[in-house]
């Protein structure tokens, strides 16, 4: 039973951490809000006064806005689908007892530790380059015309790179979930004549549902803000401009800080909607 | 005893600080072009002469622009010298972000030494790097664009390149020179997104087709016929005779294609002439001819004007040292230094009048064509119909870089076959008008 005194001591002890966290979050947030209501053009002398909601209206009414939203959705959806399906299969595979299990698991997880810019460059130059990329050799070996990955299949390429990066994360979480399945239950169902598919569908998958939501939640939040992979591979060309990239474009390429900040505020709202929505699902799952 | 030690410490300290002052280090942001890389190789000479150390930050063109623009607008102070071009210099100079190098009106504030001979800088370059008569950046090299073509392939195709060809001739020649089975493309041109890459090329080309970026009221003009003509002509010609995947080819990609003998013609920066005729790097060094950039008979050619120049951001702590470097790198002596070590064909071109009067240099096969191309470019009068902006392959307004990068991305998507010319032009029209509205022009 905490006394009044010990409670206030506890608050005092926590204060530095809380203040630091608040500052970390609030200062950029407030600055973004502040700039989003200003006409702020660094190349035209900086602060040109308050403009109300002009920047907000301009950002969404721009012809680049809806294409960037749909690009974002395609990339996030594509990566989620690939990582979840392949992640589940890989997790099932890695759960099997085999020789050199430890090494294999480390190798599978490795891509997650490669920096985004590095992995994007490796993919772009060593795999997807149309002249000397590994994939173009493969295509030529089978007598096909090599694909210009970055220009002709820009979204597919970016989704591939991102999936490669995020697959280990999904695999890791799903694998730990699979390992916690009660094996007696599986054996019992096997004795009762349940096929592999049925066991997967009725026992493994329901057991994984919580892990899958966690993967969904965390990946969505991170994928909404991917930037390095696009910057390094296509620099926003060939229809690969996401919402995040559009904000970067507004602030740094167009040097319109106010407009970009308004976009930033939209992105914050969007990310929070997704987060609240997904947290509810997780919460419901946890209650079960 | 104590006094002695403290004295010793004081002496040691003052010695340490004085050597620190002597070994001053300046940081220079530059672009990864051949001439700049070469200059980095000679930095030791500068350090030997002056005792000033130099630290290089070498970046790809698009990245360099973003880095230095962000640094100058936020007064970041990361660089003592920035490599910028004709687009940035007048805009930044007008904002007071650069240290003036030379003033016409008030000679008292001249920062350049007499030996530097500022009047030797080519008037076109000096004009483009000044704002209201004040020079803000010293040209390291200047360029226009011209046609570089393979004389052997041209002869094989049974054609003769005129000194001043038309686009129709170029398209015809490109088709005749293309030999897909031997991997020879009739023509290689820039398609890469970015206003300084493919954007610069298509804008310069559009001038010769009678197009312009803005009408006199700053409205975008992508909905008008000249732009559709330009883009359709370009796409048809490149699909017929260009290399595959040209949508991602910029200056460096085309340079390596040409050097490997995979291009019949290449229209690009005049500085490339030195690289394609250098037998060390080029397999076709002895088979290259030059001609003026093409036109369509409307009175404007499709060559641009550009200079990479060194500027000193206002607010640097090391103005003196930076100025010393700028003078050294853009001096006549530097040109002679490079000439002595690597031959006259490899000196940084296009910056100084004296270079084109030097008998050693006039012997270089591309010298005259380079000078002619530079002299035929007029940034103040670049379009067939009147336009409200200065600049040939760009419009010298702060918003242009952002707009043109997006527009060139839409064009690149056409080159990659992702959308039609009409779709791209409609998007370009929207992008440009929206940005001009946001900036308060319309």
Can you give me a brief rundown of this structure?
Chain A has 288 residues and is mainly alpha-helical.
The neighbouring-strand order within the major sheet of chain A is 1-2
* Largest sheet composition of chain A: 2 strands, antiparallel
Q: From the alpha-carbon coordinates, what is the Rg of chain B to the nearest angstrom?
A: 23 Å
Number of helical segments with 4 or more residues of chain A: 13
Q: Architecture of the domain at 65-240 in chain A, according to CATH?
A: Orthogonal Bundle
| Uncertain stretches of chain B | 11-21
Strand fraction of chain A: under 5%
Total count of strands of chain B: 11
CATH architecture level-2 label of the largest domain in chain B: 3-Layer(aba) Sandwich
| Helix and strand element order of chain B | HEHHEHEHEHEEEHHEHHHEHEEHHHHHHH
Assign the CATH superfamily of the largest domain in chain B.
Periplasmic binding protein-like II
Give the % helix of chain A: over 70%
The CATH homologous superfamily of the domain at 65-240 in chain A is termed: MetI-like
What does the model show?
The complex is a heterodimer of chains A (288) and B (442). Chain A is mainly alpha-helical and 288 residues long. Chain A has a domain at 65-240: Orthogonal Bundle (MetI-like fold), CATH 1.10.3720.10. Helix content of chain A is 75%, strand content 3%. A two-stranded antiparallel ribbon of chain A has the order 1-2. In chain A, strand 1 and strand 2 (46-50) form a beta hairpin. In chain A, helix 5 packs across helix 8, helix 8 (154-179) crosses helix 10 (196-223) and helix 10 (196-223) runs antiparallel to helix 13 (257-287). The two termini of chain A are 29 Å apart. The longest helix of chain B is centred in the first third of the chain and has 21 residues, at 2-22. In chain B, helix 18 runs antiparallel to helix 19 (421-439). Chain B has helices spanning 2-22, 34-41, 43-50, 61-73, 88-94, 123-128, 151-156, 167-177, 198-208, 225-241, 251-259, 272-276, 319-329, 332-342, 353-357, 359-362, 367-375, 400-415, 421-439; strands spanning 25-31, 53-59, 81-84, 102-103, 130-131, 134-135, 138-150, 185-188, 263-269, 288-292, 305-311. In chain B, the strands form two sheets. In chain B, strands 1, 2, 3, 7, 8, 9, 10 and 11 form an eight-stranded mixed beta sheet that branches. Chain B has a three-stranded antiparallel beta sheet with strand order 4-6-5. Mean pLDDT of chain B is 89; it is low at 11-21. Chain B is 45% helix and 14% strand. Chains A and B meet through helix 7 and helix 12 of A and helix 4, helix 18 and helix 19 of B.
């Amino acid at each position: 039973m905490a006394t009044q005194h010990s409670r206030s001591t506890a608050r005092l002890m926590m204060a530095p951490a809380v203040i630091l966290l608040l500052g970390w979050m609030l200062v950029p947030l407030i600055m973004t809000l502040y700039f989003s209501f200003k006409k702020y053009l660094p190349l035209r002398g900086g602060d040109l006064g308050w403009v109300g909601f002009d920047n907000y209206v301009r950002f969404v009414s721009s012809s680049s806005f809806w294409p960037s939203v749909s690009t974002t959705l395609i990339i996030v959806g594509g990566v989620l689908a690939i990582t979840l399906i392949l992640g589940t299969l890989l997790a099932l595979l890695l759960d099997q007892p085999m020789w050199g299990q430890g090494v294999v698991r480390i190798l599978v997880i490795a891509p997650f530790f490669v920096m985004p810019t590095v992995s994007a460059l490796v993919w772009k130059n060593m795999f997807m380059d149309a002249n000397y990329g590994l994939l173009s050799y493969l295509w030529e070996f089978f007598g096909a015309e090599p694909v210009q990955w970055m220009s002709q299949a820009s979204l597919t390429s970016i989704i591939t790179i991102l999936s490669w990066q995020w697959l280990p994360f999904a695999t890791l979480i799903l694998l730990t979930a699979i390992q916690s399945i009660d094996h007696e239950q599986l054996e019992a169902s096997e004795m009762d004549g349940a096929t592999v598919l049925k066991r997967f569908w009725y026992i493994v998958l329901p057991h994984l549902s919580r892990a899958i939501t966690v993967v969904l939640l965390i990946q969505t939040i991170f994928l909404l803000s991917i930037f390095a992979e696009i910057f390094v591979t296509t620099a926003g060309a060939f229809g690969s401009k996401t919402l995040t990239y559009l904000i970067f474009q507004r602030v740094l390429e167009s040097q319109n800080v106010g407009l970009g900040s308004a976009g930033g505020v939209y992105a914050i709202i969007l990310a929070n909607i997704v987060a609240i929505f997904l947290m509810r699902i997780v919460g419901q799952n946890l209650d079960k | 005893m104590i006094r002695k030690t403290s004295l010793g410490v004081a002496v040691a300290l003052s010695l340490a600080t004085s050597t620190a002052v002597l070994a001053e280090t300046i940081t220079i942001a530059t672009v990864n072009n051949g001439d700049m890389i070469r200059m980095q190789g000679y930095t030791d000479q500068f350090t030997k002469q002056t005792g000033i150390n130099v630290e290089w930050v070498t970046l790809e063109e698009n990245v360099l622009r973003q880095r230095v623009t962000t640094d100058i607008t936020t007064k970041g102070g990361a660089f003592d010298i920035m490599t910028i071009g004709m687009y940035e210099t007048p805009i930044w100079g007008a904002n007071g972000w650069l240290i003036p190098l030379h003033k016409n009106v008030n000679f008292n504030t001249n920062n350049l030494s007499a030996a530097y001979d500022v009047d030797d800088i080519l008037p076109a370059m000096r004009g483009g790097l000044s704002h209201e008569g004040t020079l803000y950046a010293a040209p390291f090299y200047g360029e226009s664009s011209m046609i570089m073509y393979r004389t052997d392939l041209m002869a094989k195709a049974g054609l003769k390149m005129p000194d001043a060809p038309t686009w129709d001739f170029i398209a015809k020649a490109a088709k005749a020179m293309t030999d897909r089975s031997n991997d020879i493309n009739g023509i290689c041109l820039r398609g890469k997104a970015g206003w300084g890459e493919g954007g610069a090329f298509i804008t310069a080309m559009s001038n010769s087709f009678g197009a312009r970026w803005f009408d006199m009221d700053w409205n975008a003009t992508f909905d008008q016929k000249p732009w559709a003509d330009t883009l359709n002509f370009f796409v048809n010609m490149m699909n017929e005779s260009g290399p595959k995947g040209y949508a991602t080819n910029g200056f460096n990609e085309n340079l390596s294609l040409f050097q490997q003998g995979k291009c019949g013609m290449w229209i690009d920066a005049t500085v490339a002439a030195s690289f394609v005729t250098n037998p060390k790097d080029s397999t076709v060094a002895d088979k290259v001819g030059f001609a003026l950039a093409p036109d369509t008979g409307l009175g404007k050619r499709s060559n641009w004007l550009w200079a990479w120049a060194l500027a000193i951001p206002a607010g640097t702590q090391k103005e003196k040292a930076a100025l010393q470097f700028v003078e050294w790198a853009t001096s006549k002596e530097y040109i002679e230094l490079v000439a002595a070590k690597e031959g006259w064909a490899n000196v940084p071109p296009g910056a100084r009048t004296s270079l084109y009067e030097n008998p050693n240099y006039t012997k270089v096969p591309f010298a005259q064509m380079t000078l002619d191309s530079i002299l035929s470019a007029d940034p103040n009068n670049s379009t067939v119909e009147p336009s409200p902006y200065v600049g040939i392959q760009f419009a010298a307004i702060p918003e242009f870089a952002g707009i043109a990068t997006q527009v060139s991305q839409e064009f690149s998507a056409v080159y990659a076959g992702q959308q039609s010319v009409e779709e791209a032009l409609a998007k370009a029209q929207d992008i440009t008008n929206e940005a001009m509205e946001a900036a308060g022009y319309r």
